[in-house]
Amino acid sequence: MLCIYLLQHTDRFHCCWYPEFSILCGIEYWIPVQPRRLPEYWKEGLGKFTPHGSLIRESMRPFALFHMNYKMAGIQKKLYTTKIVVVGAGELALSFLEHLIFSPSCWYLGYKSITLISQGGIPNKFEEKYETFVKMMMVSSDRYNEEYLGKLSLETWVDIAVGTVTSIDRKQKFLLVDEEYDFDFDYLFLFCGTQFTIPQSVAELVTNKECRVVVDEIKGVEIKHSNRPENLFTINSDQDAFYTLMNLKEKFDKTEFDRDTKIVIYGHCLNALACIAGLLEFGIKSSFFVLVEPATCPSENIDYAYNTPVYNSLKATLQSCQIEAYYHYSFSSYETEETVVTHEINITKVHFQSQNRVISFKALALISFEPKTINYVTRLALQKACLTFDGKLVIDSDFLTNDKNIYGAGSLTRYKKKYYCDHYNHENYSSHEIGAEIAYRFQKRIQMEESGKSYLSEKRSVTEFTHPIVVTCKLPGGWNYLHVTKPGPMAFLQTIASKKPWGKVLETGSAFDRQGPGYFRIIINQCQLVCDILCFTTNKIDVHNMICLYNKHESLLNQLLLRWKGDLISDLYIYFKEPWAYALYHDRFPLFMEEIQTFYLNMIEDEQVTFYEAVAYCFNVCKWQKISEKDKELVEDLFNYIPELKTAIEKKVKEFLDYNENQLTTYMTTSKLEGYLKLYKHSRLYDTENMARGRLPLVPTQPDYIVPTPGNRKELEDRMKERPMSQIIFEVPSDMDKGSNNTLSPLTSVDSIVPKEITYVPGDASKDIPYLNIDIDKLCYYDEKSNSQ
């Protein structure tokens, strides 16, 4: 069979001197290969057990892979000409496009007309000297990083347009971008979400009125886009971060700017701190920064804002970096000034207020992360299109608006009130999982409508998403932050812990020690499942590995609770880097667990029930509370009573490790066991035939050797006559001929044999048999000729 693979490198630089890559003609008929995520290996700890270099190539440029063979070439691939337009380029939109293009049916179905519209396009790669700083200023889930997007090569399948949707014509099925470009659509997907917007300014600052508070509450007037000051920035994408970085660089390159001015950063979220970390790394002095946090906190940041160890550590870090920080202040107003030559409007002074105080700063720039709302232009476009809008775009359980050809999802939307499910709103759930679900349902709809069936007539309930919410970023002081938590509305840890029954919180390290391993918190719920992971350290965090730990039972984590109770775990970072854990980090492990679960659905012989039903019956007797020890023993006896179930699971585990042996190098597999047995039969360590060639004997082939003593002289002489000399451990006497290349002189007596308890093992033996139970440090042989050990 002939198989052809096409490697397409994508240099996705946002610079005019880097030409765009060319696309092969007829590429739509090839089969795109979805990239896989490898476990992040601890090379220092694993050593020689780290996978081979051909599997891990850190310096290799990311590339997209396409496949074609005789079988696929003989199948007619159907390409839909349906015009699909996606608005937004966040994680939800990228997830939708990934699962639409790389679906299981991609080898016989495809789409020719997909358009993505976004203010900044898809995440770009910038010049190397700015790339690190731009990425540090962003908070993300690290799902669609630069390397992964390079392997997807979405530009091959998607037309990208940069701009903002200003009008939607539902009747004619087209939309306007920036009031200039129009795009036709058959299906429209609105994934634009919410963004950080310009803070509202008050009409007048009252300072001379005597009252109990310093400033009266004055309603704000929303700033029009055309009147936006040049030094007012909001960062919603990497393009915004790059634009902010270049503007600040231009201001600092000027020698006439006021040294007393400040870069004011307003917001109570991780995005504000990540922005400070990126600008500090860029080289801006910490004395230029002022952080102002409002009293209110967004729901998605509730754990960061009130997690005492992490929050207090960040406060101490800001103080040590000499960054001014003010807490519980809300934005009041700012003063502007227009330049005579360029007619640019710039902010000169910013005012904030608390319950009893007003503070003001001379502003070089204002970077706002408050409030986070729907874009004003987008909101007007939705309302003028007569799409149902109740503070947010209203959708049904199929993610459809009141127009059956327009989908909506993400923080832009909310469900219809008839579902009574405000807690299921999408801002509380994983965007990646939502995008995958919409892609699956859309493909199902296309195929059903093509076959003449009605997809919209089916009634469905609101989907309950289960994937975790992941937040990762770089914070001031060199701290790395990762939070993996369960989906749904956030709540205080103290509130959750007050509910009974409750699980356990495991913590190691300190959030204040930069030289130490770092702070690690893992929460195990009452079902002994991992429901929350928080990492705060100056060392590199294995983000993908930590995400894989979510929703795993503690027994899968090498009996975590038992070891914790025995004080055997001092550092959770090192614990989860140990060799036993890498099967959990494999991308096929969830599918493997699903296959294991199917075994429990088989009927038990002579019982006419499944194992699931037997366990459910025990919980039903206990009224779904903690199962009693007596019932627990009955379930364990039932499992041991079914040898076929246990054997099938063991066989499946063995097949999983054998099939993924190239990545799971720390486990004993069938091929390694066969190699060990082959080594036992043919290696110089055990092969007695080497003795006939005059080679130096290494270790005995039988453990029942006899150490020469005056009392067993005759027995030893008889043993020497019965079997070869290599089966006795001995030391070469000093009077042996050294010039015969390690050959042995004939021995007729045991007088010159000196017993020796240790033997030599060649250095390559441990590579072939990594699980050989031998203490290598004790197995050595001193060769006087080579003076080496």
Automatic annotation (TrEMBL):
Name of the protein described by the UniProt record: CFAP61 dimerisation domain-containing protein
Q: Which Pfam families match?
A: CFAP61_dimer
So where does this one cross the membrane? none
State the source organism's domain of life.
Answer: Eukaryota
Q: Where is the CFAP61 dimerisation domain?
A: 464-584
Q: Which InterPro entries match?
A: CFAP61, CFAP61_dimer, FAD/NAD-bd_sf
Q: Which PANTHER family match?
A: CILIA- AND FLAGELLA-ASSOCIATED PROTEIN 61 (PTHR21178)
